[in-house]
Each structure stands twice: as C-alpha cells, then as structure tokens.
Write a structure and sequence with these properties.
The structure holds two protein chains of two kinds. Chain A contains 13 helices and eleven strands. By secondary structure, chain A is of the alpha+beta class. The N terminus of chain A is likely disordered. Classes of the chains: A alpha+beta, B mainly alpha.
Chain lengths: ~475, ~325
C-alpha cells in the first residue's frame, strides 16, 4: 500500500471497494542475498579459518584413530616382557650379531710381585696410585667383560666399580666385585651386562681402605647374542652371523616391553578417561544445572548449596581420597574408581554454567514469546533453552578433556591412578622417570604424547570459543 | 565534612568486619563439611586399618582397636574425631608408632610452605613480567614467543618440566665439573630454586595470559587516553596507570593458584626428593595410614579454604571499587 492513498483528497465515499483489496506483490521486495547460515554452520566456517584450531582438530582425530586402530597396525603385545632386551633405544630395524663363545677366563696372577705388601704401614691406603693400563682383554660381549690392569705397589686388593656415567671421585658407580690380592690383576664381570655403554673403575685398596685414585675405562657392549642363545632360535647358526630381530620403533621399557605398543594401549586408557569423565560430568551437570535454572526457587537453592559444597572440596586431594575409598582389590586396573571419583567431583562446573545460561535465557524475549504461544516446559527446554546453551557447554567440554587427561597423568604419575601393569600415559611416565637419566626415551615419548594431546585440546578449545561465541573472543 | 568521613569509615569498617566474620563462618562450615566427608569416606574404605600383620591375634587386635578408638560405634567415633579436631588434635599415625599427625604437620609443612611461597613469588613476578612484555609488544615476535611459551606451560605436565630441568642440570653440573645447582634434596636455599620454579610454571603461564589480556583491555580505556593527551611519557603511563590497574585480575587468580601450587607439591616433592608434607601425604595414601590421610586432608582443605578467604579480603582492601558486601553471593 502506498502512502499517497492517505493524502489523497478523494472523499471516503468515493473510494471504490477495489481499494481495499490486498495489493499484489510485484517482484522480490525483500530477501537474503546469500544462503542462510545456521549457528553451527557459521561456527564451523569460523573454526575453519583458524589454522591452529583446525590442525589441532586433525591431531585429535589422528590420536583417536591411533588409539583405536593402533593395535591392528602395530601388533606387538604391550605386556610381553623380553628380559634380554631391556631399555633398548628406538630402532627402526634391528638385528643381532651372534658372538663366538668367550674364551675360558684365566685369572691373571703376577708371580713377580708379592700378594700383600710386606710392611703395610709404609703405604698410605688413601694415596695409593691409580692402576696403570686398565684394558679389556676379550671382545666386549653381554656374556662377560674381562678386565686387566697393572699392579699397584702397596695394594693388597682392588675394588671394581661399574656405572652408566663417567666415574668421578665419590661417584664411581656400583661396586660389583673385588680382588683379594695385590698381584691378582684381572676381573671377569659376568653380572647382568646390557647393551650400551658402561664405565668400569678399578680402585686399589689396602687393609680394607680404598684409595682416592682410580683408573677407569669405557666399554661399549654391542647388541649381540651368545651362540647358545642363538642356537635355541636357529640350530644351524654360526658365530659372526647376524640374526634379524623384532624392531622397537620407540624402544623398550625396563621390562623389555615394546614402548609403542604400550603407548597405544595407554592411549586407550588415557583417552577413555579423558573423554568419558568430562562427557558424563557435563551430562550430569546439564541435568542438575538445567533443573536448578528452569524450576528456580527452592529446588534451585538446594541444588546450588549442594554444588557449592562439592565445589569447596579441594579437587586433587579428594580425587586421591575417593580413589582410596573406591580403589578395589588386587588385580583391578583402577580405571573405574578414577572415573567415578572424577565425575563425582567435576560435575559442578558444568552445572553452574548451565544454570547461569538457563537463568539468562529464561527471561529473554524469544523464550517469553514461546511461552506466550503456549509452549510446554519440555518443548521450551529442548527447543530453546538447551540448544542455546550448547555452544558454551561444548567449549567448557573441550577444556575439560585436557584437564581430565592431566588429572589422570598426575595421579598415575604419583602412583595413585591406574594400577600397573595397566598402561596409561601417566603411569608410563612414572615408569620412565625411574630410568630417565640412563634411558631418556622411556620417559620422553609418553611425556611428549601427553603434551601434544593437551596442547591440541587447548588450542581447539580456544578456537571453538572464538568460533561459537564471538562475544567471548579472546584478545589474541 | 570531617564528621561525615568518619561516619563512612565506621560504616565501612563495620561492614568489612561483618563480611570477614561471615566469610570465616562460611569457611568454618566448609571445613566441617570437608572433615565429615573425609571421615565418611575413610569409613567406607574396604578392609580396616588393623588388617595385615599388626593384629596377630584377637587380644592384640582388641588392644589396638581400643588404642585408636575403633571399638566404639561409628557415631561416637565421629563425635570423638570431630571433638579432637576442634581441639586441634589429629590423632596418632597408624604406621609410624607414637608419631602424632600434628607432629608430622609441624615438621613437614614449613618445608612445603616455603617452597610454595617461593613458587607463588616466581609465578607472580614472571606472570606480570611476561604478560606485560607480551601486551606491550602486542602482535610482534616477543608477543608470539611469550604466547607460545604460555600455551606450552599450560599443556606440559609439571613432572615433565621437573624431569627435563633435572636432566639439564645434571648435564650442566657435569660440564662445569662442580655442582651449579643441586638436582634434588633439601637443605640450602639453592635446593629450593628448581622445585619452586617447576611448581610455579603452570601458574606463571596462566598469570601471563591473564596479565596480557587485562593490560590489552586497559589500553583502550578513557583514562589512558587522557594520560596520553596530558603528554605523560609512555613509561610513566605504563607504570602508574596500566600496570597497577591490570594487576587486579592477577590477584583474583591467586586463590585458585595457591590450590594448584599446594597440590602440585605432591609431584614436585617426590621428583626432587623433598621431605615436604605433599610427599608425606602421598606416602600415607600408599601405606593406607588412615589417621594421617584424614588429618592431612582436613588440614589441606582448611588451609585452602582460608587462603581463598584471605585472598578475597586482600582483594577487597586493595581495590576500593570492589564492594565486598554487595553484589556478591557468599
């Protein structure tokens, strides 16, 4: 209808009936120039622009696939212990040389020198010189290492130390044996020798007191197998041949278990806890917060008091306490107690969030309008209230997952989470840190994967928050 | 005019006092609740504290039960436990004969506390420093580096930092041939540096982020524009206007950060072999030492609850804009 009809000077009586007929729409007067975008589509488009968040999303998808499909791709048994291959470093292909049997050990006794000094009081035990020319007399092998050195005048014996580091005064390693005469100048170490570098130190001693001086030697023990061991695998094997072996891409742990297989198995545990605990606590939180916010009044008051009290419990302290309470008997893996404790303590955050959102939405015009049109409570909740809360809740869920993974790792690391031998990333770190100084890979790999996972979730959370709620956009 | 000021001061003092009293009462209620939950939880633990090799026969068992008050009905045990706790008596350890929980707290808490205080200092100074740096050089390489470090600080567990730092220090000590910093143990102030740094790192990352965003919000405020218009030097504006006003959110976060640092002590103390209360708590849990677990949980709980109250009160005292009594639900 045009405005001119009002200002026309025609009298009402002259107006024909046709003037009251609805006008016909001629052509498109109003419309959207672009296809309409739903809230979620819009959020997805924003997220796609955020490279960090998108990369994180792919990393997370990859991790989930890694934990689900991993056992089919890498079929090593995470619990199989191979005691001959303890704490091996990462290798992509592995073979082992078959060593000839060691020659018979002959103790070297220097007849030209007295076994004990005739007058011990002449010598100061602490100042005995270091033995000269410390050497190994047979090729180093895991079967044994034979040491020999020049005698020290005034010594009535020697102590042999072995360690993983270059020996220094006071830190020679572990005493593995001693020789009880000054003229016996050899030692045969057969005690549990592993592949890698070892350091031997020989200290002269007199009347049971050791000298300050010592001689040391670095010995590299090759990856090798004795003929006897090899013949068990293949009877026709010859010394000097090399046998192929199962490779461990990430090495093995202190019991010779394949670390990659353990990290995959650990991923299942850690990610299971990391996803399920936040999901369930968010679900419980939505229900409780939703009821409190929607019904208000006394229900709200009671529920929020309960929430306040649970919130007042120090989280990690009570996680540990509840773990003790729920922590079942022997043979249980401790995953379920941890899950229950985590859910029981962490539903409060989502509950408060949901309540706040619902309180806000309940008073908003579109909900009032819907009510006015006769919407029933259930329709209101599922059609208007929950979908509009979902964005905020999704963001809080994304941040709850890394903190759940963190909590699991923290508890398992101090030995209060998942019970060994069940692997989880936290308990792998706990195992690994024991041998961190000698075999860093056992700690580095699980630690790395925890960090990458948590990093990815945090970045994705940041991205989601920016995408879903432009108001809350961080100033970055 | 003067009389009016005095009047408002009295009112302010009164409301402040009421507020503090209210908060303390709520805090006491929370501690009571924590103690009750702890008591309840420890009594549903499967098995009983006298299991194992201690109670070899019925007589010894009865004697032990009498000693620890386990022969009484549960409600009487509860009353006794709460009564003793009111008097500040947490009972006697189950595993260490004749050692009271109070004694354990008195001898080990100061160690954890000094470590925690140093960690809070590290975290606050580092957070304010790096946050300011990032905000001042917003969008430039400094900012990006700091933010990368922040996201790493949030995403890498503290035990990883602890292990890496320890490893690095071992190498450094070997390289120098003498001990630059001890890699573990307790005794000298030098022993505190590395653990406190690790303990404070996570909090430092959070505070850096907080400080940066609160500084960036302030940059566009009118009073900053006024200060610029007055011709004040950027340094002067930064130190006397921006820094002070943006430090408030950092203080609010101190409450939660004290909780994080306290529980973080569990890991750091065991990695660095520090005889603090956190390590003791972990040990007590592993040995199922009931009285120690209960006592330390309540002690830690009370400590955290009151630290949050103290931080809130301090916050109210330094920021006159915050009304403690209005607009805040307790």
């Amino acid at each position: 209808m045009s405005s001119s009809s009002y200002s026309s000077s025609d009298s009402l009586a002259l107006q024909s009936a046709s003037a009251f007929e609805p006008a016909h729409r001629t052509g498109q007067t109003q419309g959207l120039s672009r296809p309409s975008l739903s809230y979620w589509k819009d959020a997805w488009l924003r997220l796609k622009k955020n490279k960090q968040a998108l990369l994180s999303l792919w990393i997370i998808v990859g991790l989930v696939a890694f934990s689900l499909l991993g056992p089919w791709i890498w079929s090593a048994d995470p619990s199989e212990q191979v005691l001959s291959r303890i704490s091996e470093g990462p290798t992509l292909s592995s073979s082992v040389t078959v060593l000839p049997p060691l020659p018979e050990y002959q103790e070297v006794i220097r007849e030209d020198i007295p076994a004990y000094p005739e007058d011990p009081s002449v010598f100061n035990p602490a100042q005995l010189p270091a033995p000269q020319n410390l050497r190994i007399i047979t090729a180093p092998s895991p079967e044994g290492v034979q040491l020999q050195w020049e005698p020290v005048a005034g010594a009535d014996g020697y102590t042999i130390y072995r360690g993983s580091f270059v020996p220094s005064s006071g830190q020679l390693g572990i005493p593995i044996g001693d020789v009880d005469a000054g003229n016996k100048v050899s030692y045969f170490d057969q005690f549990d020798i592993k592949m890698g570098t070892v350091h031997y130190a020989v200290v002269p001693k007199l009347s049971g007191e050791e000298s300050q001086e010592f001689a040391s030697i670095e010995v590299t023990i090759p990856r090798a197998m004795t003929l006897v061991e090899a013949q068990l695998l293949r009877p026709d094997v010859q010394p000097g041949q090399s046998l192929p072996q199962v490779a461990h891409p990430l090495g093995t742990d202190y019991l010779g278990r394949d670390l990659l297989a353990r990290i995959i198995a650990g991923a299942r545990v850690s990610l299971f806890i990391g996803f399920i605990a936040p999901l369930l606590s968010v679900a419980i939180g939505i229900v409780i917060g939703g009821i409190a916010g929607f019904f208000g009044g006394r229900t709200d008051a009671i529920l929020m008091r309960v929430t306040d009290f649970v919130l007042a419990l120090p989280f990690l302290l009570f996680m540990i306490l509840f773990k003790v309470v729920l922590g079942g008997g022997p043979g249980e893996n401790g995953i379920i107690p941890m899950l229950i404790a985590m859910i029981a303590l962490s539903w409060t955050g989502p509950a408060r969030l949901t309540r706040g959102q619902i309180l806000q939405l309940r008073e908003s015009e579109f909900v009032q309008a819907s009510k006015l049109l006769g919407a029933k409570p259930l329709y209101l909740i599922f059609r208007h209230l929950l979908p509009n809360t979902l964005g905020v809740i999704l963001v809080s869920l994304t941040f709850a997952i890394p903190s759940a993974i963190f909590t699991e790792a923290f508890l398992s690391f101090i030995g209060m989470g998942v019970v060994p031998p069940t692997p989880s990333w936290g308990s792998l770190c706990n195992d690994g840190i024991q041998t961190f100084l000698t075999h860093p890979h056992e700690f580095i790999f699980p630690a790395l994967i925890i960090s990458i996972t948590v990093l990815a979730f945090n970045l994705l959370g940041d991205g989601l928050r920016d995408a879903l709620d432009p108001k809350m956009r961080s100033l970055s | 005019m003067k009389a009016f000021d005095l009047h408002t001061l009295i009112i302010w003092e009164n409301t402040m006092l009421t507020y503090i009293l209210k908060r303390l009462a709520a805090g006491a209620l929370t501690v009571f609740f924590i103690a009750s939950v702890t008591f309840g939880a420890m009594h549903i633990v499967p098995g009983d504290p006298l299991m194992g090799n201690k109670a070899t026969n019925a007589e010894i068992r009865a004697n032990l039960a009498r000693k620890y008050g386990l022969d009484l009905p549960v409600h009487q045990q509860y009353l006794r436990y709460m009564g003793n706790m009111m008097k500040g008596d947490f009972g006697i350890s189950f595993t260490q004969q004749n050692r009271s929980v109070n004694d354990i707290i008195v001898s080990h808490f100061p160690i954890s506390a000094s470590l925690g205080v140093l960690a809070v200092i590290f975290a606050t100074i580092g957070g304010i420093l790096f946050g300011s740096l990032a905000a001042v050089f917003r969008g430039r390489a400094t900012d990006r580096t700091v933010m990368l470090l922040v996201i790493l600080g949030i995403s890498v567990p503290s035990f990883v930092f602890a292990a890496l730092l320890q490893f690095g220090m071992t190498e450094l000590n070997q390289w120098f041939g003498s001990e630059v910093l001890p890699i573990g143990g307790w005794g000298t102030p030098l022993h505190m540096l590395m653990p406190a740094l690790v303990l404070g790192l996570g909090t430092m990352a959070f505070l850096t982020r907080l400080k940066r965003s609160s500084l960036l919000e302030i940059v566009n405020q009118d009073y900053i524009r006024t200060a610029k218009a007055k011709g004040l030097s950027p340094l002067h504006i930064f130190f006397s206007h921006q820094l002070r006003n943006s430090v408030l959110p950092v203080i609010t976060y101190l409450g939660p950060s004290i909780a994080a640092i306290t529980t973080g002590g569990f890991v750091v103390e065991s990695v660095f072999a520090i005889p603090g209360l956190g390590r003791y708590f972990v040990q007590a849990v592993q040995q199922l030492d009931y009285t120690v677990i209960m006592g330390l949980t309540v002690f830690y709980g009370a400590f955290l609850v009151f630290m949050v109250i103290v931080v809130d009160i301090v916050y109210g005292l330094i920021d006159p804009r915050i009304s403690l009594t209005k607009g805040k639900s307790s």
